[in-house]
Specification:
Elements (H helix, E strand, L loop, with lengths): L2 E5 L10 E4 L10 H4 L12 H8 L5 H11 L3 H16 L2 E5 L8 H10 L1
Parallel strand pairs: 1-3, 2-3
Helix pairs in contact: 3-5, 4-5
Length: 116
């Protein structure tokens, strides 16, 4: 079982397994049928405030990751995180994001947490 992080704009691959969109907003210019998204748990995404703070360049990626982990520790976000962990236990999962730099995005934080 593995967890991958990929851009949602990349074509689906057979080894993707369950494809989970981890962005709050639907990616621009992408038809829903072309994305082949299996799940879209919006509660697992960073809050609007955190996302805006990070994209404004007010903090480091490490600080963003810490704040995001704190958001994922409670409520509906924690439940959604548990659900994705369950998916990983059952098979391959690909976390999809529209971010141009997935390695510096919340999707990478999620990938680390669901494998823990």
């Amino acid at each position: 079982m593995s967890v991958r992080v990929r851009r949602v704009y990349d074509p689906p691959e057979p080894e993707d397994g369950v494809r989970v969109l981890v962005d709050r907003l639907w990616p621009r210019g992408l038809a829903k049928d072309a994305a082949r998204v299996d799940e879209w748990p919006k509660t697992i995404t960073p809050s609007t405030e955190l996302r805006r703070w990070y994209h404004a360049g007010e903090g480091s990626y490490e600080e963003f990751a810490g704040r995001y982990e704190a958001e994922l520790a409670a409520g509906e976000a924690a439940e959604a995180l548990g659900h994705v962990r369950d998916l990983v236990r059952k098979g391959d999962v690909t976390l999809l994001t529209a971010s141009k730099t997935p390695e510096q995005s919340h999707a990478t934080v999620l990938a680390r947490l669901v494998q823990a």
